[in-house]
Design goal:
heterodimer, A: 240 residues, Ribosomal Protein S5, domain 2, four-stranded antiparallel β-sheet, B: alpha+beta, six-stranded mixed β-sheet, 14 strands, elongated
Chain lengths: 240, 282
């Protein structure tokens, strides 16, 4: 019996099942905060520098910090090697999504006249880059000790083979599926980002949203555990 | 004895007079991070970390981490070498890896390291480029070797070269078929010895870098980022597996005697042997 007939997806997952997540914080020696996150075969590194002195005087805001997000995709990260320039519109758009997702969540007024730099590096791409970037950024910001009102957890969902499914991989993503990425604040269940750019019947939207929201909650459990484990580990080291 | 006019905490002293702070340690034969002058930092090598690349490796030398991926692509050969493929190494120092680097076009340092590695690979003939030929005058393989530095704590040259050599060793390319002007590269099922080939590396150059500190000629093996900024010059020695020299670079204002050079070569021999051992472990 093929996978579809018994209701499983191309990689053997159930519709509402996330891929295997591996996450760690404090992975880089130089950054103030950093995180490494794997969603299946999608691998992302996030580094946070700051709050530090703003690079350009003209951009300084006297009452709050400015966020700066840069996204870089390693040339070997996807099937086809493509040299993406730093000014690739697609990357700039993704970076601005991440920035706008975090602007309302980071309590920027605590760090006036400064700048927080978030650097993201996609090491391997297998679908769901935006969700991975957002989740990695949350972990890195927490690791850097930057005040936030809540976690931001992101998850994709889409309509795959007449069924709503979450956390699409590259094959599912590329076979003309409609995909929605949402980012959620798990405590208040508020959505800070919803992004879709393909056709989807309006009746199906609610189901896809509901599933993506559940994915975000699952994501929250994993991320919270990562942070708590790390904090406990640190606490243990300090008592010794 | 007069009491000093000022008293500082060690960290203030380090910020005000980094070189003098450092000198207090080196005169005792140690460094602030606890290493002896001739000690290299702990090094780890992981192979095949990226499944989308044809070959990949991750190398950590202390706080410096480099991820290298090799991608093989079919391209037309150059006119003057119709039966040779080519290698395109590139080292990326993004602003992520250190607060030293600014966003924008590749920094001077990144370009210099890329070029130095390109020369090592080319001049010591690591790979017979004729092996990369698919059909003479029509199609060859291009190997894009991209080393991305994700954390920078000095000595990028050693780390990048080690990552690149480990990734090249790890490369598997699908056997192509050339028929009537079209090339087919099979995909799908996992790469096996029957449907893919590995690179035949003639030699594996690895390097050891030393920083020259002070006019007293203190030689520091494997400098970290603070040591790099206060040092007056660097010596990089590249050796292959038989202990033959593949390159010697000495840059910076500090001049050094021949005996210092000789000591560095001896130390580099030991270090590259140890590094080779780490690389072959897995």
């Amino acid at each position: 019996m093929s996978h579809n007939q018994i209701g499983l997806r191309i990689d053997g997952r159930r519709p509402a099942e996330l891929r295997k997540i591996t996450s760690t914080t404090c992975v880089l020696s130089q950054a103030d905060g950093s995180a490494y996150l794997e969603h299946g075969n999608t691998k992302v590194l996030a580094a946070v520098y700051g709050p530090r002195e703003a690079r350009h005087r003209a951009l300084v805001l006297h009452d709050r910090a400015i966020l700066n997000v840069e996204l870089n995709v390693a040339p070997f990260s996807s099937g086809e090697r493509r040299r993406r320039s730093k000014n690739d519109k697609r990357l700039l758009e993704m970076a601005s999504f991440v920035k706008q997702t975090f602007e309302p969540v980071v309590i920027a007024t605590l760090y006036p006249r400064s700048q927080i730099d978030i650097y993201l590096q996609v090491i391997q791409h297998d679908g769901g880059t935006l969700q991975a970037c957002i989740n990695a950024t949350t972990l890195a910001l927490i690791d850097a000790g930057i005040a936030m009102t809540d976690y931001v957890c992101a998850c994709t969902a889409g309509w795959v083979e007449r069924e709503a499914a979450i956390d699409l991989n590259y094959i599912e993503e590329s076979s003309d599926t409609s995909e929605v990425t949402i980012a959620m604040l798990p405590k208040s269940s508020k959505i800070t980002l919803a992004q879709m750019e393909s056709r989807l019947h309006v009746d199906k939207l609610e189901e896809v949203f509901r599933l993506a929201g559940e994915g975000c909650k699952q994501m929250y459990e994993v991320m919270d555990k990562t942070i708590r484990d790390r904090a406990e580990d640190l606490a243990r080291k300090m008592t010794v | 004895m007069a009491t000093p006019a000022f008293s500082f905490t060690p960290s203030t002293f380090q910020k005000l007079h980094p070189a003098e702070f450092f000198r207090r340690f080196t005169t005792e034969g140690v460094r602030p991070d606890g290493r002896l002058l001739d000690a290299f930092r702990p090094t780890t090598v992981h192979h095949g970390v990226i499944s989308t690349a044809n070959g990949s490796a991750m190398v950590r030398i202390g706080g410096t981490t480099v991820v290298c991926g090799v991608k093989a692509e079919v391209a037309e050969p150059k006119l003057d070498a119709p039966d040779q493929g080519y290698l395109v190494p590139n080292v990326e120092l993004s602003p992520m890896c250190s607060s030293k680097f600014r966003p924008g076009p590749p920094s001077e340092q990144a370009q210099a390291v890329s070029e130095a590695i390109n020369r090592v690979l080319k001049e010591s003939k690591v790979l017979d480029l004729k092996d990369l030929c698919i059909e003479e005058g029509k199609a060859v393989w291009v190997l894009y070797v991209d080393a991305v530095c994700v954390a920078y704590d000095g000595n990028i040259f050693d780390a990048a070269l080690a990552a690149i050599m480990a990734a090249l060793k790890n490369v598997r390319i699908r056997k192509p078929t050339y028929q009537e002007g079209t090339i087919k590269v099979s995909g799908g099922s996992t790469a096996t010895d029957e449907n893919s080939f590995r690179l035949n590396l003639a030699r594996a150059p690895l390097s050891a870098t030393f920083a020259i500190f002070d006019t007293t000629l203190t030689i520091l093996a494997d400098p970290n980022v603070t040591e790099e900024t206060i040092s007056d010059g660097q010596i990089s020695i590249t050796l292959d597996e038989t202990g033959l020299l593949c390159g010697v670079t000495k840059i910076g204002a500090a001049s050094c005697s021949q005996s210092v050079m000789k000591d560095c070569v001896q130390s580099a021999k030991k270090r590259t042997l140890q590094l080779r051992g780490i690389m072959n472990q897995q």
